[in-house]
Specification:
Structural class: mainly alpha
Largest sheet: none
Mean pLDDT: 88
Distance between the termini: 79 Å
Number of helices: 27
Shape: globular
Order of helices and strands: HHHHHHHHHHHHHHHHHHHHHHHHHHH
Low-confidence stretches: none
Number of strands: 0
Strand content: under 5%
Radius of gyration: 28 Å
Number of domains: 3
């Protein structure tokens, strides 16, 4: 690597390093959350360009307990308008966005290196090296080629823009220039736009506080401005700490929010003591067989107290190291703080999935900042031989990313690979089973049909699983004219009775009932037993009570089952007048006054309010 090589050309080389490895995954299909967010979302499927259509598409995403993400959804709609549901077009947009983010990472790191004392001729090649590592790391594959994670990428784009704007503002203050209102306005606008992509925008003040406290240290040409900055940092640390404590206390305060999970808030918080070191392991030793994409096989009791204690000790040690190096190597301290800040929300005691690889998209920037921050400020360029090992590292990362991306080029190959490297994942088994089922083309004698059933049954047998395996096997058997095995139904009823009643389980059960009412030959008696089991667990939406009761009358022809379903629905929501009215409207449509009388009698005989 020639240190005299034009920095602009190095930046373009970094851009190429971003694009080429990921292009290997372009031919692949949509995956997992891509389907509900894009493929099955009619409002995102923009056929003609109009402001009304874009507006409807922008607010198509409705996350439970979260905010809409209009900017990203509008981009999905534009992708569809330009190329239909062609996965490669969506992925290519993500790759271009990843490259643009790389340029922002390069600009930010080079600026920070100069602020910390490096000569620009040294800072720019180091920034190119750090950026290329970030761009070409194989951990990025499951963000860049997983289309729906454009939400993470767009939020990162505006977060980096806000940080870059702030850094440039502070450099001007140190140099004695007046406040640049365009820069200040741009920083605020970038922060606001980050909120249109993902709630992680809430972390921007923490990132900026870290940069100020560890890099700029409240320096300014004007002593009065410096004093105000010190007050601002003190207040920011105080408010930020209070906000974080309040956020985590809120998450820990109500375990009922975790009713649909196999873990509680304290357990989730403890799990992060193992998961965050695992992320660091993937970053520093990027083994492809450890990047399993689906982490539903993880469950807190998979780890013992010793693993949690060791992980927590390691994390505390990193924080102590960051504090110790804050004067000697400020960028190392900033990089460590950056990593923790990036995980501040996703590691909180909220009912989120335990782990996802894309949560490291922003965190990885902190790690590469820490790595280049190891070097003392230099006024002279590195010798040519210095660049030999970094070049080997970058090419090795790019090769690993190309290999991983190649698996994403074929949906069936990826499904098989994910099962091979993670046989404990129910999601991987279900995905592979679906690939086999589609390839069998409704031929019950096809070996692929048997392979699909085998994968579904394997998913059923995995611990702490949902009823999605049973749901898939029952529907496939009904569609293919195959026997619906009693053990599938028994497993479904047992899980609905004994395990946490997850939203996905209720949705899956409702899907089977809907298919039955549309004429699919699903067995009625075991299906009614499953719906009654779910209703006995607690409050169901009135639409579900009506759906299940309709099946009891029209499908199973079990009037008593419908009476119990309605009675349990009315009892569970006895203090909700609107809910009761919707239930009663359903009773009126199905059986009128006679059915209502039976429901009231059953409720009086079998259910009584708690004393």
């Amino acid at each position: 690597m020639n240190p005299g090589f034009s920095p602009r050309r190095w930046a373009w080389l970094a851009l190429v390093a971003a694009c080429l490895p990921f292009l290997a995954g372009l031919p692949g299909g949509f995956l997992f959350d891509d389907f509900p967010t894009i493929v099955h979302s009619d409002r995102v499927k923009l056929e003609s360009l109009s402001l009304e259509g874009l507006w409807q598409a922008a607010f198509a995403y409705d996350p439970t307990g979260g905010l809409p993400r209009p900017l990203v959804n509008a981009s999905f709609a534009l992708n569809h308008w330009l190329s239909g549901l062609e996965p490669s077009a969506f992925k290519l947009t993500n790759i271009v966005l990843h490259a643009c983010n790389g340029l922002l990472v390069y600009a930010l790191i080079s600026r920070l290196l100069v602020v910390c004392g490096h000569l620009p001729a040294v800072a720019k090649p180091l920034a190119v090296l750090a950026t290329t590592v970030w761009l070409a790391h194989p951990l990025q594959v499951s963000t860049v080629l997983y289309v729906v994670q454009r939400m993470e990428m767009v939020c990162t784009t505006f977060t980096l823009l806000a940080m870059l704007g702030y850094v440039n503002l502070r450099v001007r203050m140190i140099q004695g220039h007046p406040l640049s209102w365009p820069l200040a306005t741009g920083t605020v606008v970038a922060t606001a736009l980050a909120w249109t992509a993902k709630e992680n925008a809430a972390l921007i003040p923490y990132f900026l506080l870290g940069i100020e406290a560890l890099v700029f240290r409240c320096r300014a040409a004007n002593p009065a401005a410096s004093q105000w900055l010190r007050r601002g940092v003190f207040l920011g640390i105080l408010l930020g700490t209070v906000a974080a404590i309040g956020l985590y206390a809120y998450g820990l305060s109500d375990p009922s929010r975790f009713a649909a999970r196999d873990f509680g808030p304290g357990e989730r918080l403890a799990s992060q003591a193992v998961i965050l070191p695992f992320y660091l392991g993937l970053i520093f030793v990027p083994r492809l067989d450890a990047m399993v994409f689906y982490y539903d096989h993880w469950w807190l009791r998979t780890w013992g107290v010793s693993e949690v204690a060791i992980g927590a000790t390691m994390l505390v040690g990193l924080l102590v190291l960051a504090a110790w190096l804050r004067n000697r190597r400020p960028l190392v301290s900033l990089g460590i703080a950056w990593f923790f800040t990036a995980h501040l929300l996703t590691s909180a005691p909220f009912p989120l999935e335990l782990a996802f690889e894309h949560r490291n998209y922003m965190a990885l920037v902190g790690i590469v900042i820490a790595l280049v921050g190891i070097f003392e400020p230099r006024r002279d360029p590195f010798p040519a031989k210095f660049w030999a090992l970094p070049c080997v590292l970058v090419f090795a990362l790019a090769a690993a990313t190309t290999l991983r991306a190649a698996y994403w080029a074929d949906a069936s190959l990826l499904a098989r690979y994910l099962v091979d490297i993670n046989p404990g994942s129910a999601r991987a088994a279900l995905d592979l089973g679906e690939r086999y089922m589609l390839a069998a083309n409704r031929n019950p004698d096809s070996p692929l049909a048997a392979a699909a059933i085998a994968e579904y049954e394997r998913a059923m047998a995995l611990p702490h699983g949902s009823i999605l395996g049973e749901h898939a096997a029952v529907l496939m058997a009904a569609q293919f004219g195959m026997p619906q095995r009693p053990e599938w139904w028994q497993s479904m009823v047992r899980k609905l009775r004994d395990d946490p009643l997850r939203p996905q389980d209720v949705d899956a059960l409702a899907g089977v009932v809907e298919q039955r009412l549309e004429g699919l030959a699903v067995e009625d008696a075991p299906l009614l037993e499953a719906t009654l089991t779910a209703a006995r667990r607690g409050t169901l939406a009135p639409e579900l009570v009506l759906l299940f009761a309709t099946h009891a009358v029209e499908g199973a022809q079990d009037y008593a089952g419908a009476v119990e379903l309605f009675a349990r629905g009315r009892f569970a929501a006895r203090n909700d007048a609107e809910y009761l009215q919707r239930i009663d409207d359903g009773i009126e449509r199905i059986g009128g006054a006679a059915l209502l009388e039976s429901v009231n009698a059953w409720q009086a005989d079998h259910l009584s309010p708690p004393q």
